[in-house]
Inverse folding.
């Protein structure tokens, strides 16, 4: 088996904190704008000839 490092240093945690904050903010904004906007077309509308 490989001997991989399993400890997370404070510097690594600080490095990933902005990335995690951006991802969480994106998810929050997605659901916030999802509830405040209307659909561009109704779900029953077909696009183009079939």
């Amino acid at each position: 088996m490989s001997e991989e490092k399993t400890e997370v240093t404070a510097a690594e945690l600080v490095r990933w904190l902005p990335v995690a904050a951006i991802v969480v903010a994106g998810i929050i904004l997605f659901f916030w704008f999802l509830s405040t906007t209307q659909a561009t077309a109704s779900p029953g509308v077909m696009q183009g000839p079939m």
